[in-house]
Each structure stands twice: as C-alpha cells, then as structure tokens.
Predict the structure.
Amino acid sequence: MNLGVPTLSPDLERLRLEARAFADEVVAPGACERDREKRFPKEVLAAAAARGYYGLMVPEIYGGMQAGNLGQSVILEEFARADASTHVTLSVHNSLVCGPLLAYGNEDLKRAWLPKLASGQALGAYALTEPHAGSDAAALSCSAVRDGDSWVLNGTKMWITTGTQCDVLLLFARTDKDAPKAKGISAFVVPRQIDGLSAGKPENKLGIRASETVQLFFENVRIPAGNLIGEVNRGFNYAMETLNGGRIGIAVQAVGIAQRLVDEVASFLRERIRNGEKGRTTQDEDFRLAEMATKVEASRLLCWRAASMRDAKQDHVREASMAKLFASQSCNEIARAAVELVGPAAMSGGHVIERLFRDARITELYEGTTEVQKLVIARTFLR
C-alpha cells in the first residue's frame, strides 16, 4: 500500500487554478436555476468541451489532455464545487466511458470514438445498472446474442446518467446465460441513435437535478461484432475495475460539494460580523467550522492518494473505496452542519446551501453505496 501523500506539480497547480476560474465564471452562474428547472447544462458543457475537459484521461494522440487520474481529480473537484450536476456528467464521460474504452478497446474503436469523445463531438454514458441489478451488478440480465457479424441486444438499463443526451453508450450485457453470473458478461460500444433503443422519462430526483437520469430499453438492437470491447465474457471484470476510477470520481464530487459548503458558511459568518450582527463568532461556531474544513482536507488527500495509485497502476481497490466512504459521509455531515450554522435561510429554495444539501445525498449512494464500500474495504484485509 502506498501511504505517501501526493503533492501537485506546477503543471497540475496551473490546471487547478484554470479549472477554478472556469468553474467560477462559467459553471457556477445559473446552477441553482438549472437545478430548479431540471435543465441539462448544454451550453456549459459545450464551453467545457472547448477547453479540453471532455478528454482529461485521453492521450494526446487521440486529441485529449492526458492529465491522468490525479489531474482529473484536481480539475473536476472545481466543477463539483460549482455544480454537482455538471460534474457528474463530465465524471461519467471521462472515467466510465473514455477510461474503459482506452484500457480495453481495440485500436479501431479507439480511433473511431476517442477523438470524438475528447473533442466534445460526442458525449458518453455508462450503462450497467438494471431494475434488479444494482449493488449486485453481476445479476444483470440485459442480453447480447451473436448473430453473424452482429450482436443483438435486448433488455432494460436503469439510472443511466445522460441516457438521452449522450451520443454513445458503454453497455454491459450477458453473453453467456449458462456461465456463473459474473463470468458471462461482455462490454460493448453502442451508438445512442440506433434502431430499437428507446428511453423512459427523466427521473425526478432529489438532487443533481440538472443531470439527466433515465431508463433505457433495448429491443433487438443490432450492433457490429467489432463493437465488442475487449474479450467476450470478460466485461464484469472491466466494469469492476472501471468503477474503482468511478468511485474516486464520486469521492471528488463529495469533496467539491463539501468545499463549497465550507466556503459558504465561512462567508456567511464573516458577513454577519461585518454587518455588526455579532461582534464575533461563538466558540461552537469556530469548532464546527474547523471540523468541517479538516474533514474536507482529509477527504481530498484520500482522493489524491487513490488517484495517484491508479496513475501508478498500483492496487488501489481499498484506497478508492476508503476515499469514497470517508468523503461521501463527511460531505453529508458537513451539509447538515452548514444548514444548522446558517439557519432557516439555508433551506429556502434557490439558496446555494439548500441545493448542495440535496446534492450531497447522492454521493453515499451511487458508484457503490456506503455499505458496499465498507464491504469492499473489509474484504481487502481478509483475502
């Protein structure tokens, strides 16, 4: 296990500052309105694509930024601080679509899709979860049957981020119904605009409401045989390894949300003092603000460690789950404390803390629930 604490190189520090400025100027304005209207941030994402934020992990030969996992974490934290909905759209695109395509796709698939994904010509979505296959992803039943030079897809996917807004799906389907459930799954590239693929209505969610989430229905969807990613029946392994990166991405989201909450509480307390409402903060307020800020910093370092280990191709299953567990729990604790410190105004519709409070909840649920993270961590000690 790598217990070193990573630090940012001058280049990464420059990327962080550039991302902070972009997030403050482009992503944050209108975030509460987009949330209230459940409006997908098309204009914001187009601006992000123009800055290269669609290709954070993609090598330069395919038109990407090649910032690495640590660079991606540093950059996307600033997006999460501004708007968690925009963050999760970019996090899924970069970690869960570009990542496995780069790691397991053949050269033809890489050349066909990575330049489009990196440039923003295409937006990607990740289709693993099903109505009866959530935490137990290996129980999925969406099928892919080989028919000559094609695969034919049938089934339903659920909770798919950007399911109708995307241009391409990274899909997991069962290719051997007789194999043990984790052994008969394969991964595919599926264009979104294709006969037989339809979607349900967008989910009406508690938080990240400007991020679209839908069900997808596959009815005899036919794709070329060459759209298989990697080897037949190895898809579950690809999905689980990919989710290590996804967990770091959601931990980073939690850090960004929590940092914004700390910033908002500190600003509120400073403004109250300047306005003469109180001569100073109370000791209880000081203590709670200190605890909030310390949890954010600890969460950030856990994310950086996991991301650095992933960049170094070290075993980081435990570290990714630790980052996700601690950062998401801390984020929700900080959200509750922020509401209590700011008071009733923080729960008014349209207040940034009210939005952040709702957005925080999802960080303990997707990319593996809190309970799943605990199981993963414990098993790394017992194997």
In short: The radius of gyration is 21 Å.
